[in-house]
From TrEMBL:
It catalyses: 2'-deoxyribonucleotide-(2'-deoxyribose 5'-phosphate)-2'-deoxyribonucleotide-DNA = a 3'-end 2'-deoxyribonucleotide-(2,3-dehydro-2,3-deoxyribose 5'-phosphate)-DNA + a 5'-end 5'-phospho-2'-deoxyribonucleoside-DNA + H(+). It is an enzyme of class 4 (lyase). This is DNA-(apurinic or apyrimidinic site) lyase. Its cofactor is Zn(2+). Its EC number is 4.2.99.18. It comes from the Bacteria.
Amino acid sequence: MPEGHSVHRIARQFARNFVGKRIGVSSPQGRFVDGAAMLDGHTMTDARTVGKQMFLEFDNGLWLRVHLGLYGAWDFAGDIRVDATVASANGRMGQTGMRGTGDAVLDSAGENSLRSIGAPRLTRLRMAENEKISVEPDGFPPDPIGQVRVRLLGTDVVADLRGPTACEVLDPLQVQAAMDRLGPDPMLDDSPAAEDRFVEVVRKKPTPIGRLLMDQSVVSGIGNVYRAELLFRAGLNPYAPGKSLSDEQARALWRDWAYLLKIGVATGQMMTMDGLSDAAHRRAMKRRADRHWVYKREGLPCRVCGTHITLEEMAARKLYWCPKCQA
């Protein structure tokens, strides 16, 4: 599932390439025909993200809310402007992200650490979880491929959405209600008030901190990778009740999340290791295995104490942690 940094980067992609343009909205799959008709032909006026949810506003006052979930992703094609440049780019964003056709720097998993937005793959299209196809479209716009729930088409850019957990049209009051249900997102609000909100909720809950960090009503954007890495960096046992954390520990968690999230948005990668030499940093940018303290390192020695990293299950998600450093 895309974590907060990816969705923020996808929203920036829409802001650069779609906001201010009249957009044709359709549902090639046929499952979103009524919603598409409400937005078709209107100008996109805003693109926002709160945690893992994205909200696209149109000039008729309606919004498209999208939650990619486990399998959702956006495919982009056309004259996609990435960062400060304009290039012909065809790529995928969401579960796996975007791959441009320019002089990208890719890691061994196909992740573009410099110019990508999202968490990229080498393939442009994923028809199913176990079926990956690379396609270069012939002409513009390319034909929809697979089960495209929503197509957003401008004069020179197109975005296809497939497999989202949520996709709906909302009015402004409904958008505000949806946002109000979400916890604070430090990319939107890194103020003392946002920090206080997080700390207050965490410190009154008997729920394990490992579950609270994944609760989007407590804090927005944290997924399995960031959860494991934040807790290791803080030296916190994932099973410790939230209310057992000191004020200082809770505030440090929030500030570290703000810090790591900004790195993720800037680079497109979940880089969670600090203090690396130049050579080690280059290795980490090329290989995910060198990028994290505990995530997906079950059975391997802890990078700090040598104890084998443990893999367990918490709330139906994989939990990676060091029983000694996080005791």
